[in-house]
Amino acid sequence: MSSSRIQHLLNYFDNYWPIENATVKILEECIVKRKLKRKEKTLTEGENCNHLTFVIKGILKTYHIDKRGNQHNLQFASEGNWLTDFSSLYNNVPSELCIEALEPTIVLQIKKEDLFNLYDNSPLFDRNMRIITENAFIEQQNRVLQHISSTAHERYLYFLSKYPNISNHISSVQIASYIGVTPEFLSTIRKKIATEG
User: Fold this and answer.
1) 3-class secondary structure, 63
2) Cα(193)–Cα(23) distance, integer angstroms
3) In this predicted model, what pLDDT tens digit does every residue of 80-102 receive, in sequence order?
4) DSSP character at residue 4
């Protein structure tokens, strides 16, 4: 079987530890390629997350809807990024999150059982995924720190630095939800930045 279907993933691993040929063959068999329509979900609140998702093209977002029905965007993932609900995946509990495509998106997905099997049987795959998981933890830690110690202006600048490739591809509503302000206040922030040059 040709590896062209998962070549984006192999190229990604080449940035860390190129994986063994035997692992490539396993990935070719267990990786599922999906094409998502805009607003199509890969995870819905209340269901158990049973896969890890790698974005080839497009944009996904992770969000939570609170008891008042307000949506809070937690994370975005564009080409070359991973997304999952680690809490649900590892603890086998219903997710409190949704993962949704913001535009037509192509992803590769690996099921939990295949993922754990590769952890046990491929040292290089395991090492790569540990780095990815550690980076995800660091990212979430930085995000929490941003929200408890930064102004909305600073959070917006952080968003621009973290997601430089997608800031022009998503709506002000999505960005405002991510930094925790109203779209109107985001507009005020942008005007101030433009004025300051």
Assistant:
1) strand
2) 48
3) 999 999 999 999 999 999 999 99
4) G
3-class state of residue 145 by DSSP: helix
Q: Does residue 59 contact residue 36 with C-beta atoms inside 8 Å?
A: no
The pTM (predicted TM-score) of the whole model is 0.89
What local confidence, expressed as pLDDT, does residue 18 receive?
Answer: 87
> DSSP string of 111-141?
EHHHHHHHHHH-HHHHHHHHHHHHHHHHHHH
pLDDT(20) > 70:
yes
- Distance, CA of 35 to chain centre: 16
Cα(28)–Cα(11) distance, integer angstroms: 14
Question: Which amino acid makes up residue 137?
Answer: F
Q: Looking at this protein, which amino acid is placed at residue 121?
A: N
Rounded Cα gap, residues 16 and 124, in angstroms: 9
CA 19 to the chain's CA centroid: 22
CA 84 – CA 89 distance, rounded (Å): 8
For 21, list phi and psi in degrees, rounded to 5: -60, -40
CA neighbor of 127 nearest in space, from 50, 51, 18, 54: 18
Output the pLDDT for position 147. 85
